[in-house]
Design a protein that fits this description.
This protein has 333 residues and is of the alpha/beta class. The protein has 14 helices and eight strands.
Length: 333
């Protein structure tokens, strides 16, 4: 059976995430314990408001996601499923792309990944807040016709930061921008019968507001020694194979690291083409797409994008059991 795996992004966080697997699986405990007391405290006991702070959210979700993935792989092997599952490719939603890079071996250690996403979170928080530490912007999900949403953005922006930054499904577009511009967009969209939902993030990610973070991130990643991916990764920036534009050999370590660093620096200030990413994973043969990480946001988007593929998710012991059961049933068929 061919599967795709996708990794949760920022906004999927919730208090207590990962605690169930920590209590019941040695592999999860090892990852959390190695990550340190601070991250465990944030994940297991942090409030919703605390977890909304970008410098907290990013390392917390990354550690939870990596623990879930390792447990899933371990339990799938115990059930003998690993011999019957073919991974067509992986993708991660924004922050989740760092989990994909780790799974593919591009980031070769979870500890290195934690350090990168910790600093990424700080860079993004700094770029998105004013001198008083207050958010300069935010994000909303807009539910309706994409072209109509884009038209309202053009009408409202007037040179201010207001952009469509996540193309999530045929009926969901996420808009990020400066506070005042976003308020005006929300009002005008509501007047046009477009449903608006404020997102649990602390500023305007994937917009021009993140340009300072992008520059700092590029320098950080250039020193990370990233390797050629061992799995196909669908890039947020293009929705295609991340390495499709790479013209040198996979053993040219400096070229590989520089190429991926540039893509991931662009990612933080560029739109996420998620609908197109899922469509490409399915086009490449995936019969099921499994979300790994807290929450079921990507699971829900898969259902909206394609009715034929099987959507699954793993975030705790119950969802792990259910996903393994569905996979076994479909392999038997």
């Amino acid at each position: 059976m061919k599967i795709g795996i996708v990794f949760s992004g920022q906004g999927a966080q919730h208090p207590g995430m990962g605690k169930d697997l920590y209590d019941n699986h040695k592999t999860a405990r090892e990852i959390f314990d190695a990550a340190g007391k601070q991250i465990k405290e944030w994940c297991f006991n942090g409030t919703a408001e605390m977890l909304r702070q970008t410098y907290v959210t990013q390392p917390s979700i990354y550690v939870v996601t990596m623990a879930i993935y390792r447990v899933f792989k371990e339990e799938a092997a115990k059930e003998g499923l690993d011999k019957n599952l073919e991974l067509t490719g992986i993708a991660g939603f924004s922050l989740g792309e760092y989990s994909a890079l780790t799974v593919a071996g591009t980031i070769d250690e979870i500890g290195k990944g934690i350090d990168i996403v910790k600093k990424r979170g700080v860079f993004m928080q700094e770029a998105g807040t004013d001198i008083n530490g207050d958010p300069k912007g935010g994000m909303v999900a807009a539910f309706g016709n994409r072209e109509k949403i884009l038209g309202i953005i053009d009408q409202i922006s007037e040179g201010r930061i207001l952009e469509a930054v996540n193309f999530n499904s045929p009926v969901q577009t996420v808009v990020a921008g400066e506070n005042k511009a976003l308020e005006e967009f929300t009002e005008e969209a509501s007047n046009n019968r477009i449903k608006i939902k404020k997102l649990s993030v602390s500023t305007a990610f994937h917009s021009k507001m993140m340009e300072p973070a992008s520059e700092k991130l590029r320098e950080l990643l250039l020193s990370a020694g990233m390797r050629y991916p061992g799995e196909k990764i669908y890039s947020n920036v293009t929705a295609k194979d991340m390495m499709s534009g790479f013209t040198k050999g996979p053993d040219d370590e400096n070229a590989v690291n520089g190429y991926i660093s540039e893509i991931m620096a662009r990612q933080v200030k560029s739109p996420v083409y998620w609908q197109e990413t899922i469509e490409n994973i399915i086009r490449d043969g995936a019969e099921a797409i499994i979300e790994i990480g807290p929450g079921k946001t990507l699971f829900g988007l898969v259902k909206k994008i394609n009715k034929e593929v099987i959507p699954l998710n793993v975030e705790d012991a119950d969802s792990l059991r259910d996903t393994l059961k569905v996979l076994k049933e479909n392999i038997k068929c």
